[in-house]
Amino acid sequence: xxxxxxxxxxxxxxxxxxxxxxxxxxxxxxxxxxxxxxxxxxxxxxxxxxxxxxxxxxxxxxxxxxxxxxxxxxxxxxxxxxxxxxxxxxxxxxxxxxxxxxxxxxxxxxxxxxxxxxxxxxxxxxxxxxxxxxxxxxxxxxxxxxxxxxxxxxxxxxxxxxxxxxxxxxxxxxxxxxxxxxxxxxxxxxxxxxxxxxxxxxxxxxxxxxxxxxxxxxxxxxxxxxxxxxxxxxxxxxxxxxxxxxxxxx
Length: 250
Hints:
Radius of gyration: 18 Å
Number of helices: 10
Number of domains: 1
Order of helices and strands: EHHHEEEHHHEHEHEHHE
Shape: globular
CATH architecture: 3-Layer(aba) Sandwich
CATH class: Alpha Beta
């Protein structure tokens, strides 16, 4: 597809000096997300933000893929002035097939110490752990590019930052001839559809039954996503959609 990109948005790989800005964007972007509100019912503390920032650029084992953290900068209207990081994306690339003993591994639940005292660890492990299980189930050990996170600062939406990041990722996947995988929140679903992602599964988490949480006015729990594939989610479930963009034909 042809994407009209904002000339004031410049995409680059993130560097450690960006950690604080990235952490602030993550917390701002996720603040209205129903699952984030369950995981952090009293908000995210400064201590937890610091832990998150410190973990961003830690090396990962080769078996967990090749990581790319990419940010779009908003360029100033004139020639002077600083650039502003307005969004963030985290990608994981698997260039080669992996044996089953490499990818079919039970995920170790996160602990309170790792996540911070303000995190509801049970909610985190049920939700994030469930999404990761779905990813393993569908991707298996096949080569591919995974979009783990894409968020935009709330007061910088509709500038094309999300589209610029998806253009970066889809271009890389097409150059390598690889499929792309992601788990979509309800709010990002239509954007991913525009870039050729297809529904392959859903993860309907029964958050009312598990945690007693009820839908608040104005919240989107995914009632209108992946309806052709799975029908509407059951009452009290929050739906994430597992999506795949096929490899470009050569």
